[in-house]
Design goal:
Layout: E1 2-13, H1 14-18, H2 26-32, H3 35-42, H4 47-64, E2 74-79, E3 82-87, E4 93-103, E5 106-116
Antiparallel strand pairs: 1-5, 2-3, 4-5
Helix pairs in contact: 3-4
Domain 4'-phosphopantetheinyl transferase: 6-111
Keywords: Fatty acid biosynthesis, Fatty acid metabolism, Lipid biosynthesis, Lipid metabolism, Magnesium, Metal-binding, Transferase
Organism: Marine Group I thaumarchaeote
Amino acid sequence: MIEKFGIGIDITSIQKFKKKPFKTNESFYKLIFSKDEIRYCLKFKNPYERFAGKFALKEALIKSIDRKIGFSEIETSHLKSKPIVKIKKSKEKYNFIASLSHANDFAIAVVISVRIK
């Protein structure tokens, strides 16, 4: 049974991440992203677009639910180029629908959450 819907949106500057190169700011990235997320982003020519996109996804998820949650509790991935978000080890059950886009200097993400009883 569906208990509650939520929606979150976030826009993030790609420059914010470009100004913090991974090699000299690794501890910053490890506070926000998992090892798998970092590995995924670093395999691209421009990893900072991907970091900004994943950050926007996490922020949008946080805004879509009605409880406090940290970045490290959120896992992002992709399936056939579509973003997937989930909460690790959550007592509550959620389904999420996510969309992500990069354009020029920004990444934007929208997450719709459905809390299930």
